[in-house]
Amino acid sequence: MSTGNSYYELYRRSSIGVALTDALDELIRDERIQPQLAMKILATFDRSITETLNEKVKSTRLSFKGHLDTYRFCDDVWTFIIKNVHFKMEGNETVVGDKIKIVACNFKKPGEQ
Q1: How many CB atoms lie within 10 A of CB 45?
Q2: Lower CB density within 10 Å: C or N end of the chain?
Q3: CA-based angle 78:84:87, to the nearest 5?
Q4: Could you tell me how far CA 26 lies from the centroid of its own chain?
Q5: With contact defined as beta carbons under 8 Å apart, do 8 and 1 qualify?
Q6: 15-60 pLDDT, tens per residue?
Q7: Are 91 and 76 in contact (CB under 8 A)?
Q8: Which of 63-87 are b and which e, b meaning 16 or more Cβ less than 10 Å from the residue's Cβ?
């Protein structure tokens, strides 16, 4: 998922990523840190969350059905908005959602071997 020190920034839009960004913005506004430090912190967050999820989240097979509301492919990233979705997991556990967003990207970034 990386080329050198570059990781996808997808998780910055998660609740923890937004909270981190808000906290960093406040620290910059209060002149307690420099913007360059905030960027280093965000880059470390991108790397850490990607590596942690890759190591700690177990793989589970599931299937889902729903109504594909919107899809988009931009900069090698697919985005799908699915409404009235039903997930069927291993062990026949079912989870229902009104609306979900799936963001999928290549394991390797463009240009990476």
Answers
A1: 19
A2: C
A3: 75
A4: 23
A5: yes
A6: 999 999 999 999 999 999 999 999 999 999 999 998 898 888 877 7
A7: no
A8: eeebeeeeeeeeeeeeebbbeebee
